């Protein structure tokens, strides 16, 4: 079956438009791969915080701060995007915000804590906005029975974007180290590489993706003029209460909080675990993350078709079992070999589970309120981004720095996610979403 086959798309949707949509996953994956996972997190702890005991805590708190802002603003922003039909315009603004903030990280050196924290908070905030807005286009492009495979196209292409950015960065790091240059020289350059790739790849999205939504009558008046934190909290509360009519969507949100918490640990702390427990060097870590991206691309693409065939809930549960196996292998690893095996499994599951969750959210959300309900999805995902890493940090603190116990405890998030997933009936939830016009 050819990539971007039109049989999977809604009437009137062209392949080039889906390519433009998927290119945004290609664009923003470099940010998570290089900034959050492979390079800047370790640089933040070792160089910016100068190896202080509070360095890891400061890193997780910076991410938590940005996630908190996203949690309490995205539902209101999503409602605004739906009412005004401005998903694409907001996508452009959030992209530029993330690109500029990422480039600002190139100015960060030893002791520049507050500049680093500010740039991380803004870049991660804008990244999250963009991630949510691009996801809200998915149900407009894909037929409901093909939501999984189309979502998988985006995720798999996204990992190739992550590999491109990481590969360019790794190549420069190896060259710089060969010249005797230190991290204070080559890490800032990798931040500029990440920002440039993000911007250039996103141009394809801006050129090819259409805003198919239509502004809702009366969108310029009434509640849509509300602004500020109070109005955003009111919108979040109202959307959550209205989502009670979509019980399966709400159970999916609860499920996502748990399993995404485990994924957040892997994204934010895998490099730290590899260095602290197994003695990986920075180039070793970057090569490991590169392999994870290869596995993730393959997993997301192939799993999208499997998900549509075996069912979304069953498909997601398979990936959660894989995550449980990964945490057990990482806990057991005493050398690089077994940890590399765990990393491959993590890659296969990462693309698959994140793609599956996005597709399920698209199926269970009301078609005329996509950005708003994807705002709730973002609330759940960003809450998990706080719960997972902070729990990991607390476990290491309580066990005198025992990262093995912390990674083993991470597996509990996936176990709970499996239990909650049993409450989600996709067919019932999809019917409920379509019944409300």
Task: List strands and helices in order, with pairings.
Layout: H1 15-38, H2 40-48, H3 55-84, H4 87-104, H5 113-135, H6 138-141, H7 147-178, H8 183-208, H9 228-242, H10 247-278, H11 282-310, H12 312-332, H13 336-364, H14 370-398, H15 403-421, H16 426-435
Helix pairs in contact: 1-7, 1-8, 1-10, 1-11, 2-3, 3-5, 3-9, 3-14, 4-5, 4-8, 5-14, 7-8, 7-11, 7-13, 10-13, 10-14, 10-15, 11-12, 11-13, 12-13, 12-15, 14-15
Supply database-style keywords.
437 residues; mainly alpha; Growth Hormone, Chain: A; 0% strand; globular
Structural overview:
It contains 16 helices and no strands. Helix 1 (15-38) packs antiparallel against helix 8, helix 7 runs antiparallel to helix 8 (183-208) and helix 7 runs antiparallel to helix 11. Helices cover 80% and strands 0% of the residues. The chain has one domain (14-210, 236-435): MFS general substrate transporter like domains (Growth Hormone, Chain: A, Up-down Bundle), CATH 1.20.1250.20.
Annotation, overall tally of beta strands:
0
Largest sheet: none
Q: What is the number of domains?
A: 1
- Find the CATH superfamily: MFS general substrate transporter like domains
How many H/I helices? 16
Radius of gyration: 20 Å
Shape by Cα distribution: globular
Fraction of residues in helix: over 70%
CATH architectural type:
Up-down Bundle
Strand content: under 5%
Give a quick precis of the structure.
The chain has 437 residues and is mostly helical. It is built from 16 helices and no strands. The protein has one domain: Growth Hormone, Chain: A (Up-down Bundle), CATH 1.20.1250.
